[in-house]
TrEMBL record:
It is found in: Endomembrane system. The keyword Transmembrane applies. GO terms for cellular component: endomembrane system; plasma membrane. It comes from Novispirillum itersonii (Aquaspirillum itersonii). This is CPA2 family monovalent cation:H+ antiporter-2. Belongs to the monovalent cation:proton antiporter 2 (CPA2) transporter (TC 2.A.37) family.
Length: 569
């Protein structure tokens, strides 16, 4: 019980520091990542005041990276991943190999033993998945060219974690045959990944269909958490990183109709736990050591950033990546990665690295991560200037799956009819519905229909609400339609919203919620029937149309004293 209270005490202080520090620093233009790092440093063992036990909160913090990688996997269906294979296995592999060689050579030249130099070179070749992806997600750049290239390199780095973890005990002298150990590690990794994809295709997706059909939101959320944590656990048992397992779990659902709702459900967990991760990074920085060895830490940090940026820039140009993207990717991935904290800690315990070297490298990696938002902003400015000088469009091209599209909330009879007419005129659309069977049928026909609740902000972001041209709400439920209209209006106040209403009373509610235009179906059916009756009596079409147009232009106000269609329909 005492241990529980101690952990709860630590978590409360972490939450308080985040709630206070991050909004205050953001007010002065400081990125949220730096806010979390600063809050963590304030609670660390190297600053006066409250001290948090890092070990008690680290397991929770690691889940932040896990959920972030899961969300990225959701954004990368296998079809898109195949198009990135040149960057994953080309640029990613070359980056790790060349960077590790250069940094390892420099470490050996500075006096480290061959074993230690190899370990340092390989470990520093990795970048911070959490820091980079947090910046890309925060700026809505995960699917831009910069985001795609960066994510491809990070994917290969996560794959390369397997041989590095197998290499560590061998360098410490606890292993015998390096080739055998690496072969076993890679074999376990291949078996684990094959098992994940087989189970995903034949078990996970059918299970999601069954759960979605029950329409129980809390069970759907529980299924998401179960999937992420189970796959992460399997990959960790196979000697890989939990983050890579989470990424594979995301890939399982990336091509499914449920991915938008899944992304919305895990978004709160991802943001909170990722912030906790950055706070633990801040707590790990030995500030007195950094102060005493400031020049050394700064020199090593600047050297690391320069080498990684130059190597990655040169390799990306060899693969014919445009200069504007090269500049951004080189600076964005120049930092050390969170994986280094684990490796250097274990290396120090095993005696591969001495205490001073371990602390210097740990401080270097932490400082490089702290500088990443600044480097990213610098790369962004340079990229824009270069694009202007070269006469290129400042808006990224070939980055989003769909742009200027119409979002259809509800894919029943009305939604299907609207989608068909939009498709007939070449207007792109994305439809959402909560009927799993209906969605599955539409997906089988190759239509852009997904499972998700349009009233959730996370779902709206995942289907590109910021790039949409209009939203049509056809939800056949008064309360659901009101929630949907309100959510869209809150997220994108200037976006045209066209909504379906049953009658004039609901029309007023939806207009108040933010709909630009509302079509009361009962009244419109009455208009159609009255028009047919008047035509059969010989009244001219133009007279009928003027009459109906007058009622519509008044917002159907002239009919409010009569039957509003709420009765017989």
């Amino acid at each position: 019980m005492a241990e529980f209270h101690s952990t709860l005490y630590d978590i409360l202080w972490l939450l308080l520091a985040a709630v206070v520090a991050v909004p205050v620093l953001q007010r002065f233009g400081v990125p949220s990542v730096l806010g979390y790092l600063a809050a963590g440093a304030a609670l660390g063992p190297y600053t006066p005041g409250v001290v948090i036990d890092v070990e008690s909160t680290l397991p929770l913090a690691e889940f932040g990276v896990v959920f972030l990688l899961f969300a990225i996997g959701l954004e990368l269906p296998l079809s898109r991943l195949r198009t990135m294979r040149r960057y994953i296995f080309g640029l990613g592999a070359l980056q790790v190999l060349v960077t590790a060689t250069v940094l390892g050579g420099l470490a050996f030249a500075l006096g480290l033993s061959p074993k230690a130099a190899v370990l340092v070179g390989v470990t520093l070749a990795f970048s911070s998945t959490a820091t980079v992806l947090a910046i890309l997600v925060e700026r809505n750049e995960a699917v831009t060219q910069t985001g795609r290239v960066s994510i491809a390199v990070l994917i290969f780095q996560d794959l390369a974690v397997v041989p590095v973890l197998a290499l560590l005990p061998l360098l410490a002298g606890t292993g015998h045959d390096i080739g055998t150990a690496l072969g076993l590690a890679l074999a376990k990794a291949c078996v684990a990944m094959a098992l994940i994809f087989v189970l995903g295709r034949y078990v996970v997706r059918p299970l999601y269909g069954f759960i979605a059909a029950r329409r129980t939101s809390e069970v759907f959320t529980a299924a998401n958490l179960l999937l992420v944590l189970t796959v992460a656990w399997v990959t960790e048992m196979a000697g890989m990183s939990m983050a890579l397992g989470a990424f594979l779990a995301g890939l399982l659902l990336a091509d499914s109709p449920y991915r938008h709702q899944v992304e919305a459900d895990i978004d709160p967990f991802r943001g909170l736990l990722l912030g906790l991760f950055f706070m633990t990074v801040g707590m790990s920085v030995d500030l007195p050591f950094v102060a005493q060895n400031l020049l050394l830490v700064l020199a090593v940090t600047l050297g690391l950033l320069a080498v990684k940026a130059l190597v990655l820039t040169g390799l990306a140009r060899l693969l014919r990546v445009d200069w504007a993207t090269v500049l951004r990717v080189g600076l964005l991935l120049a930092q050390g990665g969170e994986f280094a904290f684990v490796v250097f800690g274990k290396a120090g315990a095993l005696g591969v690295l001495d205490h001073t070297t371990t602390q210097t490298l740990t401080a270097t990696v932490a400082l490089s991560m702290i500088l990443t938002p600044l480097l990213s902003s610098t790369g962004r400015r340079w990229s824009k200037k270069l694009k202007r000088r070269m006469g290129l469009d400042l808006v990224p091209t070939g980055t989003e799956e769909v742009q200027q599209h119409v979002i259809i909330a509800g894919y029943g009879r009305v939604g299907r009819t609207i989608a068909g007419l939009l498709q007939e005129h070449g207007v792109p659309y994305v439809a959402l519905d909560l009927d799993a069977e209906r969605v599955a049928q539409a997906r089988a026909e190759g239509l852009p229909v997904f499972y998700g609740d349009v009233s959730q902000a996370g779902v709206l972001r995942s289907i590109g609400i910021d790039r949409a041209r209009a939203v049509i709400v056809t939800v056949n439920n008064a309360r659901g339609a009101e929630r949907a209209v309100g959510a869209v209006h809150d997220h994108a106040p200037g976006l045209p919203i066209i909504a379906r209403a049953h009658d004039l009373r609901q029309q007023g509610v939806l207009r108040t919620a933010g709909a630009a235009q509302v079509v009361p179906e009962a009244i419109e059916v009455s208009f159609q029937m009255a028009g047919l009756a008047l035509r059969s009596m010989g009244i001219a079409d133009d007279i009928i149309e003027r009459c109906l147009a007058g009622h519509r232009s008044s917002g159907y106000g002239t009919l409010e004293s009569g039957n509003d269609g709420a009765g017989h329909r």
